[in-house]
Amino acid sequence: MPALLALENISKRFGAVVVADGIDLSIDEGEALGILGPNGAGKTTLFGMATGTVRPDAGRVLFDGQDITHASPGHRCRLGLARSFQIPQPFSGMTVFENVVVAAAFGNNEREKAVYARCADLLLRCGLADKANKPAGGLTLLDRKRLEFARALATKPRVLLLDEVAGGLTEHECTTLVSLIKDVRASGVAIVWIEHVVHALLATIDRLVVLHGGKLIAQGDPQTVIKSPQVAEIYMGIEADA
Ligand SMILES: Nc1ncnc2c1ncn2[C@@H]1O[C@H](COP(=O)(O)OP(=O)(O)OP(=O)(O)O)[C@@H](O)[C@H]1O
Fold it and tell me: Which of 47, 99, 203, 210 has the fewest Cβ atoms within 10 Å of its own Cβ atom?
C-alpha cells in the first residue's frame, strides 16, 4: 500500500539558503508525525511544498500514490490534504460559521446549503458553537486557532498539516488543543504537526523527525529521537561526541 503522503527527494533553496536538500518523508493513513527543527530550518517551506504553495526545485510529491507535484493547492485540498497556518488568517469580516462554510464548499466541492449541518457540528466539536455568528476578526488567539482547525476539517481531510498551533497559548489552552488534535486523529485523519512546544507534540505523535540544514537528521520513536545526541547538539549546543 502506498504512503498516504510522500515527499520524494525534495530539494529547495532560496538564493544561498538551502531549506531542503533531497528530503524523503512519508506519512501513512491515520499516523501522527511530529516535525521539530530550529527556527528557519525549513519546516513551513516543507508544508508549502506538500500543499502546493511553494514549488520544489527538485523531487516529487505523491498523495495516495498519485503524483501531485504540479497540482494546484485547491486540487490537493480537494484530494484530502489540508493545512493550518502559523498565523491564522480567517476572513475577518465574515462570521465564524461563514468561514467554515466557505472552507467546506470550496475545499470539498460541496453545495453551500448541503454543508450547513456538518459545519454547525464542526463548530461544536471545535468549541466554537457559541461564537458561530460572531465576526471571525474579533476572536481570541485560542479561538482563531480553533477556527483554523474547523476550517481545515471542513474540507474533509485525510491528512492534516498543523503549523505551530500551540505557540502563544497558555498551558490550559494548550491542553484543550492537544485533546482536539487527539480527537481528530482518533477519527482516522493522519496528522503532521510542526511544533516548538515539545511536551504537547510528544503527547500526541507516534513518530518524530528533526529537520536541520535542509536534511532530516533524526527520525523514529519520539522519546528516542528527542534524547539523541544530534538533537541535543542542535538545541543545547552539546557536541554529539561530547
Ligand atoms: N519565499 C521566500 N523567499 C526567500 N526566503 C524564504 C522564503 N520562504 C522562506 N524563506 C527562508 O527560508 C528559511 C526557512 O523558512 P521556514 O519558514 O520554512 O522555516 P521554519 O523552519 O518553518 O521556521 P520557524 O520555526 O521560525 O517557523 C528561512 O531562512 C526563511 O527566511
Answer: 203
Q: Is 228 in the pocket of ligand 1 (CB under 6 A)?
A: no
Neighbours of 92 (CB within 10 A): 12
* 32 vs 21: CA distance, rounded Å: 24
Name the β-bridge partners of 32. 191
CATH 3.40.50.300 residue ranges of the chain are 1-80+157-242
Contact predicate 40/18, CB 8 Å: no
Banded pLDDT at 130 (limits 50, 70, 90): very high
Q: What is the pLDDT of residue 114?
A: 81
For the record, the C-alpha cell of 6 comes out as: 510522500
Roughly what angle, to the nearest 10 degrees, separates helices 141-154 and 171-186?
10
Percent share of the chain, pLDDT over 90: 76
Ligand 1 centroid to Cα of residue 189, in Å, is 27
CATH topology assigned to domain 1-80+157-242 = Rossmann fold (3.40.50)
Instruction: Please tell me what DSSP assigns to residue 86.
Output: S
Mean pLDDT for the stretch of residues 166-187:
90
Residues ≥6 apart with Cβ < 8 Å to 85: 148, 163
- R_g of the chain, CA atoms, integer Å: 18
Contact of 179 with 172, CB cutoff 8 Å: no
Is 43 touching ligand 1 by the criterion CB < 6 Å? yes
ipTM of the complex: 0.94
Q: Is the minimum distance from the CB of 19 to ligand 1 under 6 angstroms?
A: yes
Which burial class, exposed, middle or buried, applies to 65 when counting CB atoms under 10 A from its CB (0-12, 13-18, 19+)?
exposed
Residue type, 108: N
